Amino acid sequence: MPLQTLIDGALGDTPSNQPVWIALSGGLDSCLLLTLAVQAAYRSPRSIYALHVNHGLQPAAIDFEQHCRKLCGCLGVPLFIEQVQVEQGGQGIEAAAREARYKAFARRVRAGESLWLAQHADDQAETLLLAALRGSGVRGLSGMPARREWQGRTVERPLLDCPRSVLEEQAQALEVEWIEDPTNADTAFDRNFLRRRVMPVLVSRWPKAPHLLAQSARLSSEADSLLDELAALDLHGVGDTPHCLQIKPLRELSEPRQRLLVRYACQRLGLSTPPLARLQTLLAQLNVRQDAQMKIEWPGAEARCWQGGLFLQAPVIEPPIDWQCEWDGRAGLMTPVGRVEQSLRPSDEAFGDLLTLTLRRGGEALTVTGRGRRDVKRLLQEAAVPPWQRPQQLLAWHDGTLVAVLGIATAPGWWQTDHTASAS
Q1: Residue 321 has pLDDT above 90, yes or no
Q2: Residue 424 binned pLDDT confidence (cut-offs 50, 70, 90)
Q3: Which of 85, 83, 26, 17 is nearest to 50 (CA)?
Q4: Is residue 147 part of a domain?
Q5: Are residues 298 and 394 located together in one domain of the fold?
Q6: What integer best gives the mean pLDDT of the chain?
Q7: Same domain (yes/no): 186, 81
Q8: CATH number for the domain including 13?
């Protein structure tokens, strides 16, 4: 299919009342994509905007920005420049730059709008090889999706099935000008090493290597979708709550399906998935101990067992035990253990005093309507609050008297309303 026809179809599939943003680096791929998108907009009228992210990582960055300004001026396209700071932290420079770039995308592109990226089949082949060399599973081998929903925005890669050689021919035919990135020759970067040293050797032996590797990525993506469907069925069989998997039916699954289900549940919760070694340790622990002291950690998440459930969650941060603050009884207050989702008021509507919120410290007791005096510890046990969450329990006091264990129980003359359901 001719490239222009491909882009015409892709643009025609976007909402007519929303702009399409082109991530414009100044290189061949994005310059050609912007040019084709502008031509397509004559046939399927859309607002086309260009977005250039200046990472400031090399002296040539200013040349790229100036070239983008020149191209957009010739095409009559509004150009938006995002200057970013790339902070490596514990990750490589490529990953850090990508993170900064996506933050810039999120700042500029609004929810409901489309963002087009210019990766092509050769990029997809490199992505698959990098994933394979990291020992990735099916999801990693799926490479980059042609289309995905991201934070309320639609991210598309219309050129993903096109080899770079075809893009070069089209760019030359249209007399599109671009700038070559000097860092593309630096084989210290893994992707550049594959592009410069490995892919030419593969292509010399298998001329269709980029196309075939990209095809493998598409097939892996299809298999990954099928595995998600299987994991969703298994999740239903272990309680249908990703944050708490029932251990008994989980153990009845084969080990590969156990691993798949834990990873799927983490993804549903927005948690990082456990590395294979941590996952193997976790599943082995399910066969030998299931008490509340079991804890398996990995970056950004942890797993605990209690009362026959495997709990997957963000790491528990121990709050300051002496924390307290004044509270007007309304939902929405932010605390060290999260947002208060309850409101609390006395039966006396004229009440105007402030309450005091504290965390549980141990030994507290509450006089509960119709039940008499009850230890807070016992109330939390009866409410099936996991042991590691009990130190984070919020207590409400009035004039030194405990009047509510938030979300659990209240004293006579007080009314507590949970706003979690209405907020969702």
Answers
A1: no
A2: very low
A3: 26
A4: yes
A5: no
A6: 92
A7: yes
A8: 3.40.50.620
Q: Is 231 a domain residue?
A: no
| Sole residue written with tokens 């970013």 | 84
Confidence of residue 183 (pLDDT cuts 50, 70, 90): confident
Contact indicator for 72, 79 with CB cutoff of 8 Å: yes
In a domain, 227, yes or no: no
In the chain, how many domains are there? Answer: 3
Strand bridging mode 301-306 / 309-313: antiparallel
pTM for the model stands at 0.74
164-170 long-range Cβ contacts below 8 angstroms, 24+ apart:
164/28, 164/29, 164/120, 164/121, 164/122, 164/210, 166/3, 167/3, 167/28, 167/29, 167/32, 167/120, 168/28, 170/3, 170/32, 170/36
> Is the predicted pLDDT of residue 350 greater than 60, yes or no?
no
Q: What angle do CA 19, 51, 100 make, to 5 degrees?
A: 120
Reduce the DSSP state of residue 315 to 3 states and report it.
Answer: coil
Kindly state whether residues 190 and 252 are assigned to the same domain.
no
Residue 34 has pLDDT above 90, yes or no: yes
Answer yes or no: are the C-beta atoms of 202 and 39 closer than 8 Å: no
Among residues 268, 288, 313, the one where a domain terminates is 313
Q: pLDDT: is 163 or 317 the higher one?
A: 163
- Claim to verify: residue 145 and residue 273 sit in the same structural domain: no
pLDDT at residue 132, rounded to an integer? 94
One domain, residues 25 and 165? yes
* 238-251 tens-digit pLDDT: 999 999 999 999 99
Look up the domain containing 345 and give its range.
324-423
Among 287, 313, 339, residue at a domain's last position? 313
Tally Cβ neighbours within 10 Å of residue 286.
19
Please state whether 112 falls in left (phi above 0), alpha (psi between -120 and 50) or beta: left
The string of pLDDT tens digits covering residues 64-90 is 999 999 999 999 999 999 999 888 766
